[in-house]
Queue: 4 jobs
Job 1
Amino acid sequence: MGTLSFTATVSLDGYAADASGDFQWSSPDGEVFQFHIERMAAVSTEVLGRRTYQLMRYWEAEPEAEAWTAAEHEFARRWRHVEHIVASSTLARTDLGPGDSRLVPHLDLAELERIVAEADGEVEIFGPTTASAAIRAGLVQDFRFFVVPKVVGGGLPALPSDARLELDLREQRVFGNGTVYLHYAPR
């Protein structure tokens, strides 16, 4: 049986994307990126919404116009070796890339619980919109936030506004660029 986690990179004021939908301000530097590579070792399954899945397809193959670093190759290798479950009512199976990807047209809480129960390791639900129902229902067992020292003034909140959570700090780390990693678990 697996565990369910939610990981988000957020602005200091709690947004995963700014009011125009931009999140480029949250790009990790080399030190933070290396930490992401290391934490991927525990992840067996990624649950993603349509937009996040389409964004992360970047890691399926090295773009012809650029050369990846060794760290980017390692992240891509790890990313390709986890199961991807795409929650989308608008994508078709033929829209999914190669590898271990599965389409779930309607991700309800019972389906998410089944996915976690069948997983061999950590199931990471990726994206605030996709994760919101699981967060509200108390299904998330680990919250990992990468807080970027920027204030964006509005946009897509990392957490649902009506979520009520009591959390204990399990781990923290400050990176050289000022990003702070916070790992919480429910009380």
Note: The longest strand covers residues 3-11.
Job 2
Amino acid sequence: MPNPVVGLAVGGGTGPELAEVFERVLQRLGEAHGVGFDIVRSPRVYDSYVSLRSLGIGEIRRRTQEDAEHYEQFCRALAGRGVAAVFRTAINAQSLYLVRQRLRAVKVDVLTHQSASLLLVRDEAQGFYTGENQHTPGAVTRTMEFSREITEEIIAFALERARRQWPDGGPGEVLMAYKFHLLDGALDEWVTALSRRLGVAIRLCQPDTVNRNLVEHGLGERTLLIAGNEWADIMHVVLLDRFGGERQENRCTENVHLHPDVAGLVEYQTVHGSADDLAGRGAVNPVATIRAAAAIAEHHGGCAGAVRQVERAIDALRRRGVGTPDLGGRHTTTGVADALLAAVDPLATPVAGW
């Protein structure tokens, strides 16, 4: 049986350091479960925003477009080979969102707090984060759009994902957080019509209304929240802190591409950025990258239990005080990864009392 194939795309800043951690952890998890992974790395190292800052506007625009074109084609090539997963370190957001627009991406994250749970589906395919810039002296004009087709596609995906998340009844409520008051009623009309057609109650809310209700009432038992990127990008870290018990430096998420040409390709990423100020210092926190490797190993490589195994190892390291400086520890990126890898083999066959 052929080895599972996984894509790897590396950006500037701490990208190369984290890519090394990802490869080591994925391969070790595979060895512990009798699975060999073939990793296909993009030949291009993509710019971070910091790596572009010293360039002129014209050169930034050129490099941004080149990165977007290259990464889009890399994703299309992976999907054409039947590859189901790619891990990407942080790259320049402008390049990234051009790809997300073209490939119709959504970000998916699940947050839990006591008995309540939130499935956040973040619309990355349309809105202000997407679009093109036009420069005139002293001004930048950004043109973007919302479309009925993409809105309906995202809602359909979110509902299907919610039914998978809660197979014994689906979501208890479906909310959408968008600045719909700025769109002449169009988004409201599309959502209302789709809600009636599907027979599913969907509440379209202003972001401040969602914020107020979360502050006042917390999470519902099963809440599906479909959110425009203008709100969700800012609020993701807040939601993680308030309801997920996590910091962005430790968290990974998945992006699902809805375009038919790349359907089935899931991109895993760290929630944190490129951390260029830490590049080459061995100080970047590898936990989010380690978690991404475990998710890919389990969900796309047949390594059953890999996520739970890695979570138990991370908890064990935390109790021993093993961590990078951002977590109050004294260990390097490599030191944390080495400690995790040392725990993988015993974890492959759980030991009583671990």
Note: The chain is about 45% helix and 20% strand.
Job 3
Amino acid sequence: MNFRQLEYFLAVANAGQITAAAQQLHMAQPPLSYQLKQLETDLGVQLLHRTSSGTSLTPAGQLLRDYAQQLLDLRNRADSQVRSLGQGLAGVLSVGVISSSIGATPNAKLRTLTRHYPKVQIRLFEDNTYGLIDRLEKQLIDVAIVRTPFTGPHLASKELKSEAMAAVVPHKYDHFAGATIQVEDLATVPLIIYRRFESLFQATFRQQAITPFIACTCDDARTAVQWANAQMGVAIVPQSVAEQGSDPQTSIRPIRYRPWRTTLKLVWPEQVTPSPLLQRFIDSY
């Protein structure tokens, strides 16, 4: 018994005539009759009563009709779902994101992707940049959004957004003259810094021979902004995080210093050929 025989049997069962079923199947009557006989021989039962006016189902034929319809429906669903998965139209994608990726995801293209392909499921894992790179190396996630600077061998990448650092300045510390500030201006205020950039900041301070007061160091850029909002010091964070998290009690001052620019990147293992679903996700950025 095979799917083709089941299709032929269902066509005859629904049409009530072998001739009519053959016309619907665009085939001659003798090959159709042969296939039906072969199906009955394989199963060892009679499926059809054949008369000069047409055909009717035996009890065994009635039972097979129900099973045949279910089997063909299941085959069609399996075919559709497997093809969808292979074409990136369905499946589960594990995506790592950092806290400071605010504003980069989800974007309009990604929203369009999930709207057009509702069977795509995205599982998010939040961690810092190096935690996500470690997850990629262990194949625990498929792709990640991370922030420079970082070292990660054997990673393919796509640049998403480059931005300057900004100071989130509580009003009581807001004595800066211009809309933007220089690194040396930071020597006069208590700083709240995101530990991710601590070594970069400290290297710059040493180069410029200044010794600012680091009032607080934290593991999340959003936490740095929250502490600035609470008037605890001036937070130094990526501009997009500053714009998303600051409140009316603070001002945002871009910092004019190119080495402190940072870039969000989409990264995935370069030795892995992206699946169709992963490639659609990459193309959405």
Note: The domain at 91-162+263-283 is CATH 3.40.190.10 (D-Maltodextrin-Binding Protein; domain 2).
Job 4
Amino acid sequence: MIELYETQRAMRNMRKAAMQRGVIAILDVGSSKIACLVLRFDGTDPSDEGLGSLAGQSGFRVIGAATTRSRGVRFGEIHAMSETERAIRTAVQAAQKMAGIRVDHVIASFSGADPRSYGLAGRVEVHGVNVDEQDVARVLSSCDVPDFGHGREVLHAQPVNFALDHRSGLIDPRGQIGNELSCDMHMLTVDAQAIQNLAHCVRRCDLELAGLASSAYVSGAAALVEDEQELGAACIDMGGGATGVSIFIKKHMIYADAVRMGGDHVTSDISMGLSVPMATAERIKTFYGGVHATGMDDREMIEIGGDTGDWEHDRRTVSRAELIGIMRPRVEEILEEVRVRLDAAGFDHLPSQQIVLTGGASQIPGLDGLATKILGQQVRLGRPLRVHGLPQAATGPGFASAVGLCLFAAHPQDEWWDFEIPVDRYPARSLKRAVQWFRDNW
């Protein structure tokens, strides 16, 4: 496990350098929009506040915000480098202009990239009377890393549970007395090329990448309230090109996955079904969309409009019931795929099965009722937590990833347990697998 933290170590050094300057940028690279927030830190390192204070908001304030239409991103992954670079530059420059300050370091999040979750376990004997940082470091390094395949890299590796002798469920075992320390860890791997492309694109924009996070993870951190994170809940982040699924319990993410479908696919279905451009289909979906048809919807006619020059073609109308008939099958398909992911993760075994829908596509009217029928759980619509200085326009569900990334920047949990291990205490078997992309690209 030692090598898995090298990426986070290098990025933490950059993050600390940025925080010493007082500003850092947040970049949410999505399939439909790219959001950039500029944070100003008040000089105190929030990581000193205590363990696991992910939902805390102290330590920073949003001083700049901008969004732009995403270009060159499909399914949450970069497909056209130059277009994505131009969109990122546009968003960052607009946020810098609002903040009135130049930003060199960004922390980025992305969806897609075929995430896979692994559960790891490690166990060591405690050397002294009390558990100290060295014992925690040794138990983390003793976790058996599975062969997660060529071309994949570790994005998050976090301990989710410690046990000391027969006592399990410990958040922080340091200072306690015992003989045998064991640990359960959650590791999330993603497609290496997706990370490399994003890192390369950020570097082409003359920015330093000071952190990476999965959108599913940070959306859950922003949209789930503290009780839901503690008792067990799933966050469904419905974006434009991908839908992220994350499960939390005891304030830790224990599972993450992604469905390669989102709101843009609903828009595409409307575009093909009504033979209208994507921009018109997006407008119709936003103003008139829904998933539950009533008797009134047969009589409510929607003017499609157009600028083809053909008077008859441009004056077409369609009933709202027909529009719902186009939208509902795709929304059902997305939710069915989400249910498959939740069943595979064993979500029904958690003490609480709350499901929170967030993301831009979650704003379709009636979606929570349809999700309750398909997922069979308590479902609510989630909005991100309020953070200081956030503009009113950036408080909707579509900004859950960006707000969660702000909290991640202030309280990065990946590094809580990253302690140096003396060479003579390294485990006997060396771990050959290392996170190479960071060394290769920086």
Note: The longest helix spans residues 320-345.
